[in-house]
Write a structure and sequence with these properties.
5-stranded parallel beta sheet, binds manganese (II) ion, alpha/beta, globular, Diaminopimelate Epimerase, Chain A, domain 1, inorganic pyrophosphatase (n-terminal core), 11 strands, 6-stranded mixed beta sheet
Length: 333
């Protein structure tokens, strides 16, 4: 059932005992929206807990409660009535209890997301594709009953973190007038903009920057059109620079920043194939479409998939063929 913002706000006010989950490899929006909702529920007198699927990238540690690791084990203690899923397209992407599926929890799921391809797996589904971030939806829920829901400065910071990360610092096409108004309101609620910017954009250590430089210098590849650039990240480089892969969230933005590129990708070896992250600079070149064709998914301009191939060469060939098909389709339109 598709729900409205104020219906979910009322539902959350009326009930209690919430377990919050988000997707695997949580990003700024997953964490920002989840921890903000956890705070907002608790600050407003509700019982709530959060399940985290895994360790967090270092740059996020200042924003989450220090006992966040306890939440990883919360699966065992999850005597909760409702499960709130945030920023998560489908149950198999949810990082519940170290990859157990949402179904195992046998709870009523409130599914809150902004991905247009969300699979509507909840009892209540609040899918807002025009919201820039799940954090924006959480703000709108709290704003629907402003005298009942408390947004503390810490919650405002988490919500702004989610919005800043999912809009690429207000660069992506999802940067709407609404999201600017909401961000202004979050600043009025004492969101710590300085801490967000410092941790997200000015906190790479030197060896990591050198790792990025070597990737760009020696491992960048271009297809025949010259408009698709990709990098396969070799394991030996990861070891040489002691890179913790959980800290590489911003890497692909470096590729997207190159003039003349319409689509960019990062590839990495995974147990059963090659994990591909895709970004586009223009909605005409839908990487969501490419990802879907390869059994993945995502947004028009940011998507991902796993290519099952025997060798890197054949995975790259498959990827290049799909990207070039999009280029040809758009041209011939
Ligand atoms: Mn998001």
């Amino acid at each position: 059932m598709q729900a409205k913002i104020n219906e979910i706000s009322e539902l959350l006010l009326k009930n209690d005992n919430y377990l919050i989950v988000t997707h695997e490899r949580p990003d700024g929006d997953a964490l920002g929206s989840s921890f903000a909702l956890l705070n907002i529920l608790k600050d407003s007198g509700k019982n709530a807990t959060l399940l985290l699927p895994e360790e967090l990238p270092d740059k996020y540690l200042d924003f989450v409660s220090h006992d966040y690791r306890d939440h990883i084990d919360a699966y065992e203690r999850a005597g909760m009535s409702w499960c709130i899923s945030l920023d998560t397209t489908s149950p198999d992407r949810a990082g519940v209890g170290m990859r157990a599926s949402l179904d195992d929890l046998k709870m009523q799921v409130i599914n809150i997301d902004h991905h247009p391809d969300n699979q509507l797996f909840g009892v209540h589904n609040l899918i807002v594709p025009d919201a820039s971030a799940a954090a924006e939806i959480v703000y709108r829920i709290a704003h629907a009953a402003p005298d009942k829901w408390k947004i503390s400065p810490a919650s405002a910071t988490l919500l702004l973190l989610g919005i800043i990360m999912d809009t690429g610092g207000f660069r992506f096409d999802n940067t709407s007038a609404d999201v600017m108004n909401i961000s202004a309101e979050l600043l009025r609620l004492k969101a710590d903009h300085h801490q967000i910017v410092t941790n997200m954009f000015y906190s790479k250590n030197l060896s990591y920057v050198q790792f990025e430089a070597e990737l760009i210098t020696n491992h960048l590849k271009l297809d025949n059109s010259g408009r698709f650039a990709w990098i396969y990240i070799p394991d030996f480089l990861v070891r040489r620079y002691s890179v913790d892969m959980k800290n590489t969230e911003g890497l692909i933005e470096g590729l997207r920043s190159i003039a003349g590129m319409d689509i960019v990708a990062l590839m990495q070896r995974k147990d059963d194939g090659y994990k591909v992250s895709l970004r586009s600079k223009n909605e005409r070149f839908s990487v969501a479409k490419i990802a879907r064709q390869l059994n993945g998914g995502g947004h028009e301009m940011a998507a991902g998939c796993l290519i099952k191939a025997e060798s890197l060469q054949s995975a790259e060939n498959i990827l290049v063929a799909h990207v070039e098909r999009i280029f040809n389709e758009v041209q011939s339109r």
